[in-house]
Backbone:
């Protein structure tokens, strides 16, 4: 059983795309891989329950059909920070439902890609940070770096904070979110030289990304 936690340098930098591509890459290694989005805000009412587009994308990329509620135990309606969206829903994000859902997924798969919310320091509740969840699940971390102006600062600060929170960064994935970015290769070289983990790949910019086809852009090491 292997599992990783995918975080990002910010919100909107392609964590879901990277997570889906990673799922397909793991499937290419013969893994029964599933995705998980423990907390998602901005959900819509479908088939009698709140569902999130990112969580649905993870479900489509998985090798195993599992219950939506296990993929996304906290599905929150309003597109706000999780703490605020949970408040509006009259609930609070807590660890036990997430840990229980993760255990059920682990019983059905041999690889789990857990996607976080926003950037690493985005809180899940007034008393729960993403680092708390990562430590509870004992997951290594993969950082998605959105390639745009400012990515060096965001990536290095994220890596430093992950380490300071007692968590382990094992790799990073670059995502070309700005097709007009200058000096892309120079920025990638600086990131490779400074981040304390290997680059697993660079996802090219595409108007309609196909995660299955993009799996070839990743080089995922053998994970324990």
Residues:
């Amino acid at each position: 059983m292997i599992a990783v936690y995918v975080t990002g340098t910010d919100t909107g930098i392609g964590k879901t795309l990277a997570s889906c591509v990673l799922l397909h890459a793991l499937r290419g290694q013969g893994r029964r891989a599933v995705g998980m989005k423990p907390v998602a805000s901005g959900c819509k009412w479908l088939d009698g329950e709140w569902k999130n587009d990112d969580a649905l994308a993870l479900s489509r990329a998985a090798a195993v059909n599992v219950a939506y509620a296990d993929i996304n135990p906290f599905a929150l309606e309003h597109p706000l920070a999780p703490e605020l969206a949970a408040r509006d829903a009259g609930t609070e994000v807590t660890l036990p439902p997430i840990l229980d859902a993760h255990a059920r997924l682990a019983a059905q798969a041999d690889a789990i890609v857990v996607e976080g919310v926003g950037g690493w320091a985005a809180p899940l509740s007034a008393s729960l940070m993403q680092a708390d969840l990562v430590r509870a699940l004992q997951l290594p971390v993969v950082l998605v770096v959105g390639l745009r102006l400012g990515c060096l600062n965001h990536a290095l600060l994220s890596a430093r904070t992950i380490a300071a929170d007692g968590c382990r960064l094992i790799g990073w994935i670059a995502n070309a979110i700005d097709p007009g970015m200058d000096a892309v290769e120079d920025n990638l070289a600086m990131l490779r030289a400074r981040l304390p983990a290997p680059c697993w790949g660079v996802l090219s910019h595409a108007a309609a990304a196909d995660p299955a086809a993009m799996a070839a852009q990743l080089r995922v090491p053998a994970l324990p």
Observations:
- The chain has one domain: 2-34+94-217.
- The radius of gyration is 16 Å.
- The longest helix spans residues 15-28.
